[in-house]
Amino acid sequence: MSEKGKKILETIGKALPSLSDQEVDKLLSFSEGMAFMADCKNRAAGKAENQSEGREIA
Known about the structure:
about 80% helix; about 60 residues
């Protein structure tokens, strides 16, 4: 993990205990959305790469 990634986790870890349940839910929803978008982006890049090599993924 990068230093920036470690800093993000450390910062969130410090803030989490003082957040309300609603704020925690918002943070979780936002994080899951970011993870979903990153996964879609990675899949699209992989699919484009495979198609350019003449391979196709179902």
